[in-house]
Structure formats: C-alpha cells, structure tokens
Amino acid sequence: MDLGLSGKAVLVTGGSGLLGSAIVRRLATEGAVPIIHYRSRVAAAHALADDTGGFALQASLLVESEVDALIERAVESAGPLTGVVANAGGWPGPPVQTRNLTLERWRTTLDQNLTVAFLTARAYLKHVREVGHGSLVFVGSAAAHFGEDGYADYAAAKSAVTHGLVRTLAREIVESAPHGRVNAVSPTWVPPSAHAEAAAEQRLKRALATVPLGRPATSRDVASVVAWLLSDAVAGYVTGEVIQVTGGMSGKILPRPSGEG
Ligand SMILES: NC(=O)c1ccc[n+]([C@@H]2O[C@H](COP(=O)([O-])OP(=O)(O)OC[C@H]3O[C@@H](n4cnc5c(N)ncnc54)[C@H](OP(=O)(O)O)[C@@H]3O)[C@@H](O)[C@H]2O)c1
C-alpha cells in the first residue's frame, strides 16, 4: 500500500533510540526523507542518517530555543515538514510507590515526557501555520491507559499527552491547516532484545498476562502504525485518535502485596 510519503520530509524526535530508529527505517522504506533528532547518541544518529538518506540533528528538547531551532534546521535540511513524530521520552527508572515518590522525580518525569512533547508540538505547529499542512504523531504508552504500578509519574505524563494534548491539538491544528491531523500511538512494552534477563522475563510474564496476542510489541509493530497515521493518503480522515499497539491488552495484573516499598 502506497502511503504517499515518498520524498516527504518527516522529523522523528529521539530518532536514534529503540523505537525511534525503527520508525525512521520504516519511513525510509516508504521513500520519506527522515530527519533524525538526537540528544546524545551522536554516532548512532549519523549512522542511521547515512543508512536511510536522511539528516541527523542534535537538540535538547527541554530548551525552548533549541526545539524551535530544530524545526528550522530540519526545514533548511529537507524542506517543509510533512510530519513530525514526537517520540522522545524517558522511562523514569526503578518502580516507586506513589507514597514514596519524590517531587524531584515527578517533575523530571513530567519534563521528560510531557514538556518535551509540548515543546515539540508547539514548535511544529508554528511551522504548520506557515505551510498550511501537517501531521503530528505522539508516542504515548500503554501506561496511559491501564496505569503502571510504581510509575504514577510516567502514566500521568503519558496520559496527558495521549488524551489532553492529542484531543486539543487535533482541534487547534485545523485553524492553521484545514487537513492537519494530530494522533498518537500507545505501545505496550517493547523489550530491547530477545535475550531478556531473568528479571525482565518475570516482567514480561506479568506484562503479557492480559494480552490476547501473547507476545510483547516489537519496534516494527509500533513503526508501521506510526507510518500509517502520518500518511494523509491512508489516514487522512483520522485525527484526535490514540491507537493502542498492545496486542489487545485489557489490563494489568495487580502488584503483589509484598511489592516495592
Ligand atoms: N520501549 C518501550 O517499551 C516503550 C513502551 C511504550 C512507550 N515507549 C515510549 O516510546 C518512546 C521511545 O522510547 P524508547 O524505548 O525507544 O527509548 P530510548 O531508546 O531511550 O529513546 C528515547 C529517545 O528520546 C531522546 N530523549 C529523551 N529525552 C530527551 C530530551 N529531553 N531531549 C532530547 N531528546 C530526548 C533520547 O535521546 P538520546 O538517546 O540521543 O539522548 C532517545 O533517543 C518514548 O516516548 C517512550 O516513553 C517506549
């Protein structure tokens, strides 16, 4: 199926990470020109750009001027942006029950996931206003829909993105671009490799307890839905939506009573 993305410039934030790189590669197979944003993975981002015929651009997505400049530099490199995938985000680390969650971690997690998404969207929407078209796809998380024990900060940040931001921006974008669209994907856990450690295997078992398809997501599962959502040709009448890439997950099993502090 032709997604109509050939020759189109698409920026992927966090484009050299686990999901970001799969999204970049998928877009490249559709003929798109990927712009790979990175923060610290310089070598990986440039190698991916070489592989895919794209461009690698560095920015901290928590510095307003850098985010605005990223969009400008992306346009200078590849021309008007057909879409942006706001994929960059940060997993907060070990689980912490909310009664013990520090304000510092709460703020960091909201910054890493919600503020980064907001600043990326704000910068891109200015460009959308100039060019009169655009498609924005956020990467959320299953945690936004089902909660995640030990991760109230992450679940709250991701649900703010996939619910509040997506629905509001889908309404606002059409003031600048009549056919502009804003959507999100919410993946379940994507294990980094097939060689999961013992602890990860335990986590996998728990994560899959309510998943009818019986396996975790792969980065390719996520990337193909992102590419589909970006495409006006196939998803041109889809906006304000969140697609769960969760194998049909219907919930999460409850934590053990003796769980983390
Ligand atoms: N992997 C999963 O199981 C999973 C499941 C559900 C949702 N997600 C979501 O999917 C997205 C990608 O996750 P991933 O697993 O691919 O993680 P990852 O490999 O760590 O990639 C995250 C990327 O975001 C970038 N980034 C984070 N904070 C940034 C900031 N403040 N400024 C600039 N760049 C920043 C990082 O850049 P550098 O590395 O260059 O520093 C990194 O490339 C995230 O939004 C995550 O929450 C992941």
How is this structure best described in words?
- By secondary structure, the protein is of the alpha/beta class.
- The protein has 9 helices and 7 strands; from the N terminus they run E-H-E-H-E-H-E-H-E-H-H-E-H-H-H-E.
- It has helices at 18-29, 42-52, 64-78, 103-131, 143-146, 152-176, 198-207, 219-230, 232-235; strands at residues 9-12, 33-38, 55-58, 81-86, 135-139, 181-187, 242-245.
- A 7-stranded parallel sheet has the order 3-2-1-4-5-6-7, with helices on both faces.
- It starts with 8 loop residues before the first strand and ends in a 16-residue tail after the last strand.
Number of separate structural domains: 1
Main structural class: alpha/beta
Named once each, the bound ligands are: NADP nicotinamide-adenine-dinucleotide phosphate
Question: For the record, what CATH class applies?
Answer: Alpha Beta
- Helix % is 40-55%
Condensed summary:
The protein is 47% helix and 14% strand. It is α/β, with parallel strands linked by helices. It has a single domain (9-245), classed as NAD(P)-binding Rossmann-like Domain (Rossmann fold), CATH 3.40.50.
